[in-house]
Fold this protein.
Amino acid sequence: MSLSLNDTIYETFRQCLQQLSPEPDPELSSIVYSSTFNATSYTTVLQSNIRNLRFNTPSTPKPAVIITPTKESHVQAAVICAKKLGIQILTRSGGHDYNGRSYVSHEKTFILLDMYNLHHVTVDITTETAVVQTGAQLGELYYRIWEKSKKHGFPAGVCPTVGVGGHISGGGYGTMIRKYGLSVDHVIDARIVDAIGRILDRKSMGEDLFWAIRGGGGASFGVILSYTVKIVPVPEINTVFRITKTVDQNAVDLVHKLQSNAPTMDRDLFIRVLILPETVNNRVTVQASFIAHFLGGSDRLLKIMNKTFPELGLKKEDCVEVSWVGSVFFWTNLDHNSPAEVLLDRHSDTFNFLIRKSDYIQTPVSKSGWAAIFNKLAELGKCGFNLNPYGGIMDEIPADATPCPHRSGNVFKIQYLMNWSEDDPRLEEKYVGQIRSLFEFMTKYVSKNPRCAYLNYRDLDIGVRVGSGVSGFNSGKVYGEKYFKGNFQRLVKVKTAVDPDNFFRTEQSIPTLTGIQKAEPVLFSRI
């Protein structure tokens, strides 16, 4: 019986991996999967970390091979073998990427490198550092910090099942952004496998590449093995609250007021506004939920709120005092008294069909503008968005400190939201159309020239890379300047220097330009 193309790739890839091992590696047979030779395990591994059900359908393109390395040499071998075979390799850490680009490709044939097994976390309270492998999830990092100290945390996302690799390499932010900035602002070292199979740390990779993988998207430059990060002090008592107001309860006025005060509020305070339409008594209205995390006790928070945002009417009984880990649970819509071990549950979230987009508000929106936005949400009936306040330390960090340029001058970052639960192409077309309509409506209220976007909310609607060389650069520039603004050109130079063959590529990866000398390839015997 003749083998299919994918079967041939599987056999050739597996043999290449064995050849690169210094001695026979029995583990390889249990970490390489194909849809033919171990179909059940292949399907389980593939689907285990897909968070967006839009990319978990029979028609979704599937990888020819999946490899789940358990040691760094497996990653080296996977990169070298995929490059030898001339096949695209995608790297997945957590699977939360909204457009599935870590495990779905427009190319006909590709290999999935799933970092799931590389999830070790080491925390050193004395030096206030942590080394975290990129297959770990944020919850695992938070738990290991909590194990060692109740007075430390890390400024990153509020969802514990987000993969560390993608989150940090794309910027990373959470409720401590106004106090401590982005996750990448706390990375002090990294280990990466480059396009020719070398394992490099900060010293050996050089400062240009180290700069690029702290917010430029690590998957454009190599496979990130681990990050070394500085953890930060947090108080033993934190305070959270959630207050929801309808349009009839002056929600529009409250959002307008918060917009004026948010950038200069105490940097220990983060107030997200979740704005969603709700149907009550057959009437669509729009609600605004003010959700807060404060690094401190409720008494100090009340003093701050009474001075800077009294219109919200925050009362003592609205406040819940929690540990820092308890604040994570609160933001994940779990009981804030949950045992910390819940953070180790790598499948604790629920899955939906979804689409996300992003924007930045830089010029304050008028009250009539907010009223128009609320009316548009009511008209559409299902989609909504989060407003995430900036200011604080973000106003003090230069735009080129990391590839993430969206620092000072931003009032809110917008995350557009649309979820649905039914697998129906007609509903998908309807709901995707709604959020695109909202996105278009918001044009006059958001950043311009370019209209900026956040890398970790990957959005293929804003442009995709077409071709290579000049065409790849020109098409990449369309989305690249929206994600990176003036930092895009520097990222292209780094990419061209470290991966001139554009081996690490997706529809929205950093493109290359020709004319840069290639590095020497790694010999197989060096693994």
